[in-house]
# Entry
Amino acid sequence: MRHVEKVFLNLMYSGLYNTELDEEAKSRVLFLNLSILIAGFTLTFMAIQSLFLANFNFGAGLQSIDIIMAAVSFGAAFLMVFLLIYLRRNKNRVFISYFMSIALLLFCLVMIYLGSYRNTGYEWIAAYPIMSAMLLGWRGLFLTVILLVASLVMTIFGIGVATADFTTMRLGTIFGVAGVVLAFSIGFELSVSASIRKIKHINQKLQQSNTLNRLIKENGDSVCLIDASLVIQAEYSQSLETLIGDQDLGGKNLIGLFAKHTEDNFELEDFEQYLSLFFQERTKDRQLENLNDYHQVKLYPIQNLPSSKKVIDLNFKRIHYQDTILILCFFKDISEQIRLEQRLTQERLVDDQKLKDLLKIVHLVKRNPVEIEEFLTETETSIDEINLNLKSGKKSNNRKILLDSFVIIHDIKSTAAYVLNIDSITQKFHDLEEEISTVLKLNTDADIESTQLRKTIYSLGDCYEEIQSIRGTLADIFSVSTDGFGGNVFALNLESLVTRLNQKLSMAVRLDLSNLDSANIPKAYKKAVKQSLVQLIRNSFAHGFESAEQRMALAKSEYGQISISSQSSDGKFRIVYRDDGQGLDVDKIRQVALSKPNFAKMDVKDLSDKQLQTLILYSGFSTSESADFNSGRGLGMSIVSRNIKANSGAININSVRGQYCQFALSFPA
Amino acid sequence: MTREEVCLPFISACSSIFDQLLDIKLSQKNPHLQDISEDRPDWELCSLIEIRNLEDLSYGYISLNLKNSSADKIARKMIGRPIGTISQELVFDTLGELANIIVGNAKKDFEDSPLKISTPMLISGQKIRLHNPAKIHRVTIIPFEFIEAGELDFFDLSISLDLKYFV
# Structure
């Protein structure tokens, strides 16, 4: 607001004027103030005129008192006009304005006293109400006029001004001007009051409207107003269009929009009935809130597209606006919140299940540590084998690989479900089994393409991660326990494996672990050592040992012997595995290598026996003529090799045909 | 979101871009798992693509891995210079561009998805091991083979996705 405009606005209310009114109100105030100024300048003119007419005694000669009085009157009149503008531009000077008004009255009374001599005071006292109005505004005039009359009476009768000077004409002038000014002030005040009432009303409406607009624009939710016919009003949040999935919502019926964008089972009639309650004055707001059953409404911005679903929390508020009732509707998109809650619930269920499984496993470990450790190791080995089979497999043999895998997986699943009762593992292997079953069913005759095996691999990965998760948790639990997965369990596990293989393959092999300090196997290598030893034992059973008859014929003990020892020296940790079987057949190894194109670049003919022995560590290398799932694919030794290399270790093979085969696994200490 | 939904666009993009841009027919080999700690001497150039779901903060990556010699062949084919030498820098630039095209093509399938797919980042070196933010023990490998200049060649996609979020 410009400075001059502010001065004019403040004139009427002595600086108390609300400058935030609209343009219409301002123009009214400016007009009224202008009339005050015109009156002020008229007064000044009248004062000058009266001074000249009364004080300058034309023809009688100019007296010094006349010059002084003329100068004082002239100066006072102009000073008054400009001073009052200065005083009233700021509300802090209201007190000074009243002080000035009283001073002016005293000045007028002095002028009467002096004017009785020269007859000029009467003009001043007659003009005082107008000057006072300029100082205090019209509101202050009531007090001013009362003060004027009281002072005049006191001056005339108290001080003893010559009553002869107060002619009826002069008194009539004084009270006439005061009366006119008073009447004008009353009329003016009434007019102003009417204007103010109107301004206040307009202001109230504007504030309501601003509040609504702010609510609609600034609220985080999408907001709209609906009237009694449930039609959306022109003002609504733009975000509502995105939420509902419709454009230009103003003027559209909310029920009609919900009919388009909600589920078929959404009870539109109930919704309409609920909204109609807002327009019944007797229904309390709290009742309406309690009846709101629309906190999770499913909206589909794109019709018939389930993926566009949004869950909306609807809230309503009844408002009185311009003598009508409207409903302020709040739409809050809580889709993400609901999704997170659902996932949290799901994860909680999974976690609960895992906890249950873990307790079962811990119980199993306490009861029979060998059983669970053996199961986990066997499962890992089986997953490794399936994975390696798939890796080296081709379109032509994928079916066989899957069929073989299916049997293994079913076996693991059965053990997990019926022997160990571990639900999480059972479920993962069940999923894998289902996946394989689906692939096999889809391709009953044709070869299975590699592209069809992706889901199987994802599922196989899940199974492996589940086993690792259980291992990790058990390791965490028993790393602080004194009787858990320690060295003793490690040994028991190997013994159990040998026992089981003896039973399965009807062999008689003894395991010597007297020189194995399994408790001192570095934690970092424990898994690699365990998996490698399992593979070496399986390998010995598959390829190493002769039959009991052959052993007798070779003057060997009837019982096969596997010995495993450990030692730490020269900054290395070593595991030495030895079986007293038939040893490696280097001639056969050479023969197989020559027949495999993969080894063509190696110049196999020139390799030493020692070098030939290392070929068994290559993936897919096997001297066995037939393969089953226990052996024959050349996978076991490659697993050993991979485990050792992954830990920056080394393998040394030492074998004497007909006597023994020894593998020395060394790791950095 | 399923892992197949995440991986398939990249696998399809590889096949179609190699076919249309390079006139190379890719043959997909059996997928398998690979231990995260396993060394892969044949990974000399990796193009790493980060996958982030900003809604649930799940994370993963897909990486296109190949040997330098294979990258060289692909780059020559792409810039149309079968004879003569091309600098290693040009090979990297060309492979980076190829990876960009593949990712751009795959991204079309993620338009309405909360997944954010990064631009590919090229890594070169020996025995590259990729960080394992998804905290899994084994990554999924999708191997491809192709015949270029009369020789059989290979590359693969390694996939590591947070199993907690990608089913």
Observations:
- Chain B is about 30% helix and 30% strand.
- Chain B touches chain A at residues 3-4, 7, 28-33, 35, 37-39, 55-56, 112, 136-138, 140, 142, 163-164 (CB under 8 Å).
